[in-house]
Amino acid sequence: MWIFTKDGFFSTVFDKYCKRGELMIRSRCKDDLIRLAKKLHGYSDESEILGIKNADYRYRMKITKSDWADYLSNCAHDIDYSNVKDNIVPAGDDLRQDAYYQVWTVLYQWQSKMSDE
Questions:
Q1: Looking at residues 4-17, what average pLDDT do you find?
Q2: Which of 21, 23, 83, 97 is most buried (CB neighbours < 10 A)?
Q3: Domain check: are 76 and 90 in the same one?
Q4: Among residues of the chain, what percentage have pLDDT more than 70?
Q5: What DSSP element (H or E) covers 95?
Q6: Residues 6 or more apart from 26 whose CB is under 8 A from it?
């Protein structure tokens, strides 16, 4: 699962390092996982975040499926905007804004090439 939230961009999988009931939350930015940890646990314990220099997602953290579901539910309940692009990037984070906009643009181009069904 790929998800973009106000806290960051996450790739969520059940991989060989997960036990039953756990998920691996992966991110390209450590600060995203720190913000997630604060929301889940009320604090940021960076020792829970694994950094793998040459991995496709450099930062990873295991959490329970229940915690992930609660987080996603809270994100849905907190939506108070009518335009995603203008509301999920922290002010001044131009690199993130450019990356997110590129994703939006590529998916818009894909949509434009699909035939109407």
A1: 95
A2: 23
A3: no
A4: 95
A5: helix 94-113
A6: 10, 11, 12, 13, 57, 59, 60
If asked whether residues 28 and 73 sit together in one domain, one would say yes
pLDDT tens for each residue of 40-90: 876 667 888 999 999 999 999 999 999 999 999 999 999 999 999 888 998
Token output for 13: 């999988």
Q: Whole-prediction pTM value?
A: 0.88
| Number of domains within the chain | 2
CA dist list (Å): 34 to 45, 49, 94, 109: 8, 8, 20, 33
Pairwise pLDDT comparison (112 vs 115), residue with the higher score:
112
Tell whether 62 and 94 lie within a shared domain.
no
Q: Looking at the structure, do residues 94 and 73 belong to the same domain, yes or no? A: no
Statement to judge: residues 88 and 73 lie in one domain: no
pLDDT at 117 over 70: no
Residues 64 and 49 grouped into a single domain: yes
Which conformational region is residue 92 in: left (phi greater than 0), alpha (psi within -120 to 50 degrees), or beta? left
